[in-house]
Each structure stands twice: as C-alpha cells, then as structure tokens.
Amino acid sequence: MTAIILLMPLVLSILVFIRKSRSFGGWCNVAYAGTLLAASVCLYVKPGSFTVYFRTDEVSILFLLILAVLYLGVSLYNTEYIRHKNGESAGRHALYAVHLLLFAASMVAVILSTHLGLLWVFVEATTLSSAYLIYFNRTEAALEAAWKYIFICSVGIALAFVGIIFLSMGLGHSDSLFFDDLYKNAKNINPFWLKLALSFILIGFGTKVGFAPVHAWLPDAHSESPSPVSALLSGTLLNAALLGVIRVSTLLKLAGLEGYVSQLLLLMGFLSLFVSAVFVIRIENYKRMLAYSSIENMGIIAIGLGIGGPGVFAAMLHLTAHSLIKASLFLTSGTVEHCYGSKMISEVRGLLHRDKITGWLWMLSFVAIAGIPPFPLFFSEFFIARTLFANGSIVYAVIFFLLLTIVLAAMARAVLGMCFGENRSAEKNAVPSEILTWLPQTVFLVLLFLMAALPDGLCRILQNAAAGL
Amino acid sequence: MIDFLIVLFGLAMIYIAGTSRIEAYVRALFLQGLLLFVLVLLDHGIMRVPNLVFLSFETLVIKAIVIPLFLIRIIHKNEIERELQPYVPNFYARLVASLIFGLGFYAAYWSIGKAPELRPLYFGTSVSTIVLGLLVIVTRRKIITHVIGFMLMENGIFLMALSIAKEMPFIVALGVLLDLFVAIYLFGMFIGKIHDFDPEIKVDTLTLLKDSDK
After folding, report:
1. Which chain B residues are closer than 8 Å to A175 by Cβ?
2. Which of A122, A230, A267, B136 could join B149 in a cystine, given CB atoms 3.0 to 4.6 angstroms apart?
C-alpha cells in the first residue's frame, strides 16, 4: 500500500509526458489523489511500511489523511481551473501536471519518512517540485515570487542541514539518524549539540512552515501561484514542513530539554502572530491576506505545541481544521479572481450579489477561519487559551487574544467589504458554474461542521497523534 | 597538511570579503572546490570506494570546474558588469570577515569544553564560512552574487560535513544534494537572458511584490 502511493506518481508522470493532453494531466492528478485517500484510510486501519525508510505511525497518519483529503479536493477543482486556463501550450500543461504529481508525492514521502536525512531530502524535493507551479502564470510577479521562494527556502534548507550535521556530531557512539534510534538514544545525545541542532532545524524547516521572521517568501508565493497550488502550499506543504520540526522537537523532549523547545516554539509562534497582525491591517490583496492568515495559524499551532499538555491536542485540531479552511478559502479566491480579474480587495464588491454560491463559500470560510463556534478553530483556540491560563501565563493569553482580534478585525473588514456593497466593476468573466468549482470547498466546510462535533474517530486520531509527540 | 588546506580555505573567504571583482568570487569558488577535493582524498577515513569516487567527482568536476566555468559563461553572455558596488565598503567588509573568523574560532574552542570530540579548526573555519556566505547574500546587490553567496555557504557546509565523514559518510553525500539548487539557479540565469530574467538584476528592484507602505 505504502509502495503504491510512493511509486504511482512516478508512473503517472511518465504517462503524462507521453500523452501531452491538458485534461489527461488533470485527471491523472485526480486518480493519484483518489488512490492516496483510499490508501490512507487503509493505512489508518492497518499501518504499513515500505522498506525501512517509509512507515506510517500515529503522527504521520493524521498528516497523511489531511494531505489526501485536501489533495483530492484541490485536484478536482484543478481540472476546472486548467480548463479555463487558455493560452498555455499542451507541453506547459503537461509540465504543470507532472510537477503537481511530484509535489504531492514528495509531501507523502516527507510524511512517511522514518529517517531524518531522508525527511530533509524530501523537504528539498517539495521546494524543487513546487517552484515551477508558482511560476506557472509566467507573469513578472510570478517569476519574482518563484525566485524568492526557491532562494529563501534553499538557504533555509541549507541551514536545516547544518542542524542535522550538529545533531550527528552529538550522537556519540551511535551513528543512525532513524527517528526510532534517535528517540531510543535521546538521553545519550550530547545536549549541547542537541540544542544547537534544534535551533538550526527550527529556522531551516521553519522557513518552509512560514514562521516569522523567516516567512518572507510565503505571501509572495501564495499570492502569485495559481489558486489550486496556493491551496496545496498553504494546506499541505506547511504541515509537511511542520512535521519535520515536530519530529526533532519530540527528540528534545525525550532528552529532557522540554523547556528549551517550548521557549523557542513560543517565541516563533508569538512572533508569527505579531507579524501577521501588523501586515494584515492594511492589506490590499486578498490572496496575500490569506497568506498572512496562514502565518498566523502556523503561529497558533507553534504556540499550542510550545505550551504542551492539552495544547498539543489543540495544535493538532487546529492544524487539521486550518488545512481544510485554508484550502477552501484559496480555491474560492481562485473563482473570485476569475470573475473579477483582480486580486485587489477594493476591486471586488458585491460578491454575494454577483454569485450566491461563491459569495456564501467566501463568507462561511471566513467565519470558519475566524474561529466562530461551531467551527473547530474556536475549540482549538479556546483549548490553547485555557492551557495558557492554567499554566499561569496570563500575559501570554492576553497578547494571544489581542493579536487574534487584530487579525480577525482586519480580515472581517476585507471579507465583508468584498461580499456586500455594490457591484461596480464591469463584467470581466462569466461566473463559472461547473459543479467542481464549488463542490470541493462545500465538502471541506461540511467536514468542518462534522468535525465541530468532534466525533470519536477523529478524536482518537488526534489524541493518538498528540500522544505520539 | 590537512590543517594547512583548511587555513587556505578560510583565507579564500577573507580575500573575497574585501574585493569587488566578480571574477575573484569565481576564482575563490574554484580554489575552494579544489581544496575540498584534496580534503576528501586525505581525510576520508574508512569511506567506501563508490562514495569516495562520487565525492571526488562532485568536488573536482562539479564544484571546481563545471560551476565556475558556467558562471564565467553567464557573466560573459549576459554582459554583467564586473565591478560590484557593495552595500558595505570593502575595507570594513574584510574587517568584519576577519572578526567573524575570530568569533568562529572562539566559538569552536568554547564548545570544545562541552563537546570534546570536536575538531576546532574544521569547525571554526566552516562555521565562519557559512556565516560569511550569508553575509555575502545580504550585503551584495546582484542576483548572481546572491547565488555565489549561497555556493560559498554550501562549501562551508560541505567542509563541516567532512569533519564527521569518518563516522557518518552518508551525511557528506546528502549535502551534495544542495548543489541541485545551484544547478537550478545557474540554469535559470543561463536561459534567463532569452526570456525575461536578468541575473544582473539588482535585488533592490525586486520590489514588485510587497505590502502597501502608504
């Protein structure tokens, strides 16, 4: 099973290259996504492995399920997206489809890796495979975004590698970088190198997660890439990179350096919240607004992981919900951009009037990201705040709420302005009415509603993941 | 002998820190590639033959010959100005570079107390090289110097990985993957002139994407 989901995209890529057709590439992605979802469910029931290097465990299965659900929805939307995308040659579309397949496959590999070195290699692979996707629109801005993305992330990945070298230096008599061996030997690793390694790996993988102050690539890349790609970047890539951070911080916790880890995570988390609050206030571009919201939510997850205890469960809940909501928001933003031909908030008015479905999707997704009950972000933020209070860090809790409120207010102003008001702009493009342009988002939102009840199954997955950290 | 080579490797960094000719950077990359090749041969420990062959190829052919030649071609093809105007005057840049080396060695000797297995010369030089590579990235204006800065940093990482090659040879091989990025940059810049991408672009002009500063 694990072998299939790792090797299938390679076979499909070759097929896409041979048969350079626009729709074929899109449907190949759907086929892979469907297989991935089926396989993930099977792997949840019965964990599997492929060689010693790839295996599912209680943490990775959560990430894998999120990836599979999101990727299936996004690839379905994507078939419509590329159908509306005129003026690109069949070869470019084939390249796009192949990169999308490889991007998804490298994320699967990151999630399933049991070896730190291998995980690093696949994080690098995600960067290489997604750079073309960001550049797909071939505008000057897209080029700049792709260049910044690949350069900043490559420096980050190089620093993460330095962290891995430091970790290897501290290993002493053992020389294995398998997570199992690392966890078993955690107490024997030289704590000096361990701390140094975590700092570098946190900065390195943190660059890809979008933690401030190393988030500079994120708003550009998210706003300039095609909407399905933005949805995948925000909903799945950030998670995959976060898994790298989580794996290494678990190692430090096992080595008894819990305080050090949580200090660093809290620092980066609050910094991310602060940065997004500052930038989102005067935001003019709605895709950039969503990107800053991703930085904010990654910050919240870091805080949840940093405070530990119930916070870890909350972080996992937040991660799951954020992925679904952000994918829904980015996909809807693609439809909005198609209708109005602009990414500027001020150009988009009267969305509800123009198209009911898109307008409501945009509104509901916003309500979900704002953390208004019954959506699950309310519970995760509530759990985190409660844990902060329980730990006696009242100041942290106050800052937390303050920054959240600022982001919420700024986003509310933008979203409400877009949804209501008079439709001033001239009719640019007809509203796409195909079912696939709104069904994936609707399913994501329905899933979120169901999540709010925290059904037992989901609770168990989340609890297992939190316990595995 | 090994110590001497490492010192030479570090001197190359101090040399380019205070120079503004772009060829000097390429020459330093060539020199460092060559030094890394000799270091791989001298200091590989009990590395297996395929790994050794792979690393020698990587250092000698890729790092010391292919990349510098490619850079020279890009410079000629795109008619890049040879002189760079640094953000920081050269004299100070060299001073800062020496200071970073001082701090690097201080850090190395300081950490020896906590980690006795450390090899201070290797560690000090490689840490300083990585920091200086980052410094080149933030203090130079052109995209091509950013890429060169990344390569210098990468050389530092390679040197650091070599210092533990005896215990974990595969770490060194993994580090080679960073060259994939370099390949993409060079490829991008090489075909760039044909399309709309110019490696002589100053990063100051990469301001299309930003949030409003009204």
Report:
1. 167-168
2. B136
Q: Which two tokens stand for residue B106?
A: 């201080």
Closest to A9 (Cα-Cα) out of A122, A141, A175 = A122
* Torsion angles phi and psi, residue A350, rounded to 5: 65, 40
Residues of A in contact with B117 (CB under 8 A): 169, 172
- Yes or no, beta carbons of A144 and B209 under 8 Å apart: yes
**Average of pLDDT values for A132-153?**
89
DSSP sequence for A276-318: HHHHHTT--BHHHHHHHHHHHHHHHHHHHHHH-THHHHHHHHH
Q: Does A56 touch chain B (CB under 8 A)?
A: no
pLDDT in tens, A22-61: 889 999 999 999 999 999 999 999 998 899 999 999 999 9
> Can you read off the two tokens belonging to residue A275?
């940065």
- Determine the residue of chain B that is closest to A148 in CA distance: B206
Percent of chain B with pLDDT over 90: 27
- Residue A400's closest CA among A277, A290, A283? A277
Residues of A with Cβ-Cβ distance to B203 under 8 angstroms: none
* Chain B residue numbers touching A127 (CB-CB < 8 A): 181
**What is the tens place of the pLDDT at every residue in A143-187?**
889 888 999 999 999 999 999 999 998 887 777 899 999 999 999
Helix-, strand-, coil-residue percentages of chain B, each rounded to 5: 70, 0, 25
Contact A297, A318 (CB under 8 A): yes
Looking only at the bridges linking them, the beta strands covering A49-50 and A54-55 are antiparallel
Residue A464 at interface with chain B, using a CB cutoff of 8 Å:
no
CB atoms within 10 A of CB B46: 8
Chain B contact present for A117, CB below 8 A: yes
Q: Which of A162, A177, A207, A214 to mutate to test the interface with B (most CBs of B within 10 A)?
A: A162
ipTM: 0.90
Closest partner residue to B153 (CB to CB) among A128, A140, A158 is: A158
Task: Confirm if A461 and A65 have CB atoms less than 8 A apart.
Answer: yes
Dihedral sign, Cα of residue B88, residue B91, residue B92, residue B95: positive
Interface of A with B in 138-197 (CB under 8 A): 140-141, 143-145, 147-148, 150-151, 154-155, 157-158, 161-162, 164-165, 168-172, 175, 177, 190, 192-193
Q: Nearest-CA neighbor of A358 among A334, A393, A385?
A: A334
CA-to-CA distance for A211 and A319, rounded, in angstroms?
14
Most confident stretch, A86-100, A389-403, B102-116: A389-403
Write the CA distances from A229 to A237, A295, A333, B60, integer angstroms.
10, 17, 12, 39
In DSSP terms, A178 is beta-bridged to: A115
Cα–Cα dist B173/B151, whole Å: 16
Burial letters B25-42, b for 16+ CB under 10 A, else e: bbbbbbbbbbbbbbbbee
Pair B33, B21: CB distance under 8 Å: no
Q: What is the pLDDT of residues A179-221, one digit of tens each?
A: 999 999 999 898 989 999 999 999 999 999 999 889 999 999 9
Residue A103 has pLDDT above 50, yes or no: yes
